[in-house]
Write a structure and sequence with these properties.
By secondary structure, the chain is α/β, with parallel strands linked by helices. Helix content is about 45%, strand content about 15%.
Length: about 290
C-alpha cells in the first residue's frame, strides 16, 4: 500500500512526505528533478511531470492513495485533470486534493476557478476523496518580510473582511493525517470537504497591529491598493500571475476568507493541539530581524 505525493519538493508537499514517513507510511514522491530531491530514508523518488503521461503512469503504478497538489501555473487545470484520469486508469480510488477555500465563490480568479473545476471532476468520477480547502497561507507573508521590517508597512491586500490565515505546517500535517485515514481504512470513505483555517480571522489592520506589537514600533497597513500590488508583483512574477493575485486580493475585499461554524474546533481535534496563530509567525520573524 503506497501513497504517492505530488508537489513533493514544495513547502507543503515536502512536509507531507516527512509527516507520512514519521507515521510509518510507504511513500513515493513525484519530482521533476531527482537530483534536487532530499527526503527521509525509505522514500521512493520517481521522476515525472503532470504533462508527461507515461511518467505519470509509471509513478502511479501500484499506488493506493494519491496526494494531488498542483502549482499555480497557466495549465494547472489541465495538469490536474490529466493526473486524475491517469490515477483512475491505474486503479487509484483514494485521493486527497489540495484546493482552496471559497473556490466556488471566487469564480473570476483563475486559479480558484481551476481548482473548483477539479473538485467537480473528483465528485463526478466518484473518487473516495478529501478535498482540503486552505485559506491564505501565513507563510505567503515571507514575500514582504523586508518591506515590513525595513519600511514599516504591511502591503498585502487583506482588507477589512478578514482572512482566517493558516500556517503551512498545519496544512501539511492535516493533509498527511487525511492521507493515512483514507489509506488505512478497510471500508470506502465518503467524499469530504474540509476548510483549513487558522485560529483567528484577521483584517489588514489586525495584522499591522500584530507586527507593531512584535517589532515594538509602528507598522502601517498599506494594502488596499490592488493596482499597486499587481505592479509590484510584476517585478518578479509573470504578468498573468500578478493579475491573478490582484483579482484574488479584490475578492479579499468583497468576500474575505471566512471559516464556517465549527471549522477551528474540527481542525484542533484532528491535530490534537491548537492551530498555530499568526502572531507566532510574526514573532519568529521579529526575533531574527
Amino acid at each position: 500500500m503506497t501513497i504517492l505525493v505530488t508537489g513533493a519538493t514544495g513547502n507543503v508537499g515536502r512536509q507531507v512526505v516527512e509527516h507520512l514517513v514519521k507515521r510509518g507510511a510507504d511513500v513515493r514522491a513525484l519530482v521533476r528533478d531527482p537530483s534536487k530531491a532530499s527526503f527521509p530514508a525509505g522514500v521512493s523518488v520517481v521522476q515525472g511531470d503532470f504533462l508527461d503521461v507515461e511518467s505519470l503512469r509509471k509513478a502511479m503504478s501500484g499506488v493506493s492513495t494519491l496526494f494531488l497538489l498542483n502549482a499555480v501555473v497557466p495549465d494547472e487545470f489541465t495538469q490536474a485533470l490529466v493526473a486524475l484520469n491517469v490515477a483512475r486508469s491505474a486503479g487509484i480510488e483514494r485521493v486527497v486534493y489540495l484546493s482552496v477555500i471559497h473556490a466556488d465563490v471566487y469564480v473570476n480568479v483563475p486559479h480558484f476557478a481551476g481548482k473548483f473545476g477539479v473538485e467537480r471532476m473528483i465528485e463526478q468520477m466518484d473518487f473516495q476523496a478529501t478535498i482540503l480547502r486552505p485559506a491564505y497561507f501565513i507563510q505567503n507573508d515571507l514575500m514582504i518580510e523586508d518591506v515590513i521590517t525595513g519600511y514599516g508597512t504591511y502591503t498585502m491586500p487583506i482588507g477589512a473582511k478578514g482572512l482566517a490565515m493558516i500556517d503551512v505546517r498545519d496544512i501539511a500535517e492535516i493533509a498527511a493525517l487525511e492521507l493515512l485515514r483514507r489509506e488505512r481504512s478497510a471500508e470506502p470513505l465518503a467524499l469530504e470537504r474540509i476548510n483549513l483555517v487558522g485560529p483567528q480571522t484577521l483584517t489588514g489592520q489586525d495584522i499591522a497591529a500584530i507586527w507593531s506589537d512584535v517589532l515594538a514600533r509602528p507598522i502601517n497597513y498599506g494594502g488596499d491598493n490592488t493596482e499597486g500590488f499587481e505592479q509590484n508583483l510584476k517585478q518578479f512574477l509573470p504578468a498573468w500571475m500578478a493579475y491573478d493575485m490582484r483579482l484574488m486580493g479584490e475578492r479579499f475585499f468583497t468576500d474575505g476568507m471566512l471559516p464556517e461554524t465549527g471549522d477551528v474546533e474540527r481542525l484542533t481535534a484532528l491535530l490534537g493541539r491548537p492551530l498555530r496563530p499568526y502572531r507566532d509567525f510574526a514573532s519568529q520573524i521579529a526575533a531574527s530581524a
